[in-house]
Amino acid sequence: MNPHYYGLILAGGRGTRFWPRSRKRSAKQVLNVLGDRTLIQATVDRLSPVIPPERLWILTNEHLRDIIIKQLPEIPRKQILSEPEQRNTAPAIGLAAHILRSVDPEAVMGVFPSDHVVNKPGSYREVISAALHAAAERKLMVVGIQPRWPETGYGYIEFPSGTEPGVPAGPVAVKHFHEKPKLPTATEYVAAGNFYWNSGMFFWRADVLMNELRLHLPKTAAALETLPRFGARDFAAKLKHVFPQCDNISIDYAVLEKATEVSGIPAGDFGWNDVGSWNAVYELLPRDESGNVAGADAVCLEANNNFVDAGGKVVALLGVNDLIVVDTADALLVASRDKAQQVGEILKLLEKRNRHDLL
Amino acid sequence: MNPHYYGLILAGGRGTRFWPRSRKRSAKQVLNVLGDRTLIQATVDRLSPVIPPERLWILTNEHLRDIIIKQLPEIPRKQILSEPEQRNTAPAIGLAAHILRSVDPEAVMGVFPSDHVVNKPGSYREVISAALHAAAERKLMVVGIQPRWPETGYGYIEFPSGTEPGVPAGPVAVKHFHEKPKLPTATEYVAAGNFYWNSGMFFWRADVLMNELRLHLPKTAAALETLPRFGARDFAAKLKHVFPQCDNISIDYAVLEKATEVSGIPAGDFGWNDVGSWNAVYELLPRDESGNVAGADAVCLEANNNFVDAGGKVVALLGVNDLIVVDTADALLVASRDKAQQVGEILKLLEKRNRHDLL
Questions:
Q1: Which residue of A302, A316, A346 is in closest CB contact with B331?
Q2: Number of domains forming the structure of chain A
């Protein structure tokens, strides 16, 4: 293991689509929707052989920091940071790069979402290692995933035509980044073969990223560089002052789409899923012979293809199909599976009604 | 008010179709599915102007007696009896007749279900009064209700053709009792005009009923007549011994279909509903503009014609239609409205799985 490899896990997301289980203080990344480990614990587990926990850093928010500290005792507590306020990915990654550069001038950092699923961690680590290796040689690296369907919810990375999936000998130049497409465009992308899902993982040397920020996002770079040394007494207070001055922009827009050269790994399938909704959870879990994911205690009569998450409560389904049923102590969701993406609209309504207790 | 009028409220039913709110210890009749009064409280309320609580008797089972005593403090506690074991209506009514006859040789008794709804209590009491009046003159009286649709879940009373609904000057002779019909037959009944829903209410003098029992159900009559005087020290012990010897048969089969003369009131609509399922509750309650009966706290998005009963919990419905959602602390039901009659099947399954905690 290269001792200069560091990981930044981004864990500031709200995950509103997992309501009523996701709340301000229990966002998707700290939920165990798929097994006994939470999504962020699973992220750390699968990274550990490449980047050990003592070199993992986490950026989250004040609502989630305590539970993340509890869930990840193997990560040094000082490396689990709260953003003073919610910004986009560019300031968060810039902040981490600034800190890591001061901790280790040779630092190579991988940036990882905290709430995705990977079912083939071996293949995943092969890709991560290759990306870190290229990043150590001053490349800006991304990871594309061979698309399995014309998904309209992801961005796409365009590689040169004829690019084959796999971990190549060297990094492959990225031709373009494409935003979430409409279905006809997504279908063309998949047919073309050289368009890959953007996994949301990035790899670069901390100093290389800071240089890019200075070029493309000078105000944010300058603000971050006024911060004292990490560990200094006034670091937190200064950060609170500095962070709001940073541009509220994603790293994709701020750097990747503007940099003169970005490279990537056109990865094959490593069982990646962004678990974007309760329906994704349904798709990922084993079903019974009626297509239900409901637990052994559930009673299903003339009921097919339903998803149930209800803690220990017995749920009886009678004559219903394609439902999502999620029960918690103070709120219950009953939704059609094909509306799973719209769960966030419920939260907007609850907010309007001042039901902050349920958000 | 005639001082010889007594009421027997039959409250031994399980009401499995209201699971998960109905349980062994909280059957339908003691639930407040339609308002702040429970069904049995509402029964007593509407009878009181005709038969005061001090002359009302209740037959229930050991699981429900305590809660009924609590819900009906106005009824003398000794008049709230438990059947030693579950039998059909003939032994229960026979027992009450035997007791009432000993309490008051002139007793005229009305027999009432405990779990029905009546929306026009004034019209209802007019019918009850007329039936009691005829019963006082030694008639066996029933009450038919003009059918509003060809219901296959009720028995029918056939009056002479040309019978008009209303409270007639005198009782009308019943031609036949008909069991729950298939739909084509029910449709013929409704078209014919002289077939009425059997309301399950009966009216007779206690001594007249005992005579009928002696004729048509001699074993049961003889067993009951070995009982000591009501109030005697050994009454309960003797009842425990005697009751299991009684025939397990309904009063309809045992007496009404065999008696030489039965009369009835062909009643018009007094807003009667037997509240046979959660769907009946849905039909009886006011709906919002999307056809939902869900309470003010519910969040309904693209959701129509659903019924929700969830205590104080916030329920969010997203893209679902025609559902019944009933939530309790330890069990949750999600059913299609058109399957509401089959909720009992869930209980059979739970029983098989030894989940007696949920029955």
A1: A316
A2: 2
A290 with A344, same domain: the answer is: yes
Residue A165 inside a domain? The answer is: yes
Query: Are A256 and A292 found together in one domain?
Result: no
Predicted structure pTM score: 0.89
Whether residues B309 and B232 fall in one domain: no
User: Which residues lie closer than 8 Å to B184 by C-beta, 6 or more apart?
Assistant: none
Question: B175-225 pLDDT, tens per residue?
Answer: 999 999 999 999 999 999 999 999 999 999 999 999 999 999 999 999 999
Which H/E stretch holds residue A267?
A: strand A263-267
Looking at A273, A307, A327, the residue that finishes a domain is: A273
Reply yes or no on whether the pLDDT at A66 is more than 80.
yes
B329 assigned to some structural domain: yes
One-letter amino acid at A261 equals E
Q: Which residues contact A147 (CB under 8 A, 6 or more apart)?
A: A154, A156, A189, A190, A195, A196, A197
Domain end point (choices A217, A251, A273):
A273
Continuous segment of H or E residues that includes residue A212: helix A206-216
Chain B contact present for A351, CB below 8 A = no
**Chain A to chain B, count of Cβ pairs less than 8 Å apart?**
113
Which tens digit of pLDDT belongs to each residue from B251-286?
999 999 999 999 999 999 899 999 989 999 999 999
Nearest Cα residue to A254 out of A227, A204, A215, A224: A215
Q: Is position B82 within any domain?
A: yes
ipTM: 0.89
Q: Are residues A268 and A291 in the same domain?
A: no
Among candidate residues A4, A8, A260, A253, the one with its CA nearest the CA of residue A137: A4
Say whether A301 and B342 touch across the interface (CB within 8 A): yes
Write out pLDDT tens, residues A310-340: 988 999 999 999 999 999 999 999 999 999 9
Residues A111 and A166 in one domain: yes
The C-alpha atoms of residue B305 and residue B4 are separated, in whole angstroms, by 47
**Cβ-Cβ contacts under 8 Å for B223 (sequence gap 6 or more):** B242, B243, B245, B246
The token pair that represents B101 in the structure block: 């006859």
Torsion of CA A204, A210, A215, A219, to 10 degrees: 140
- In a 13 Å sphere around the CA of B58, the CA atoms on its Cβ side amount to 31
Q: Determine the residue of chain B that is closest to A341 in CA distance.
A: B318
Same domain, B293 and B204: no
Q: Does A338 touch chain B (CB under 8 A)?
A: yes
Of B299, B302, B323, the CB nearest to A349: B299
CA distances (Å), B31 to each of B22, B325, B330, in order? 7, 16, 17
Q: How far is A281 from chain B (nearest CA, A)?
A: 17
Indicate whether A279 belongs to any domain: no
Residue B315 has pLDDT above 80, yes or no: yes
Same domain for B101 and B15? yes
State which residues form the domain around B109. Answer: 5-273
Asked if B230 and B336 sit in the same domain, the reply is no
Phi-psi sector, B216: left (phi>0), alpha (psi -120 to 50), beta: alpha
Query: How far, in Å, CA of A43 to CA of A40, rounded?
Result: 5
- Find the CATH number of the domain harbouring B155: 3.90.550.10
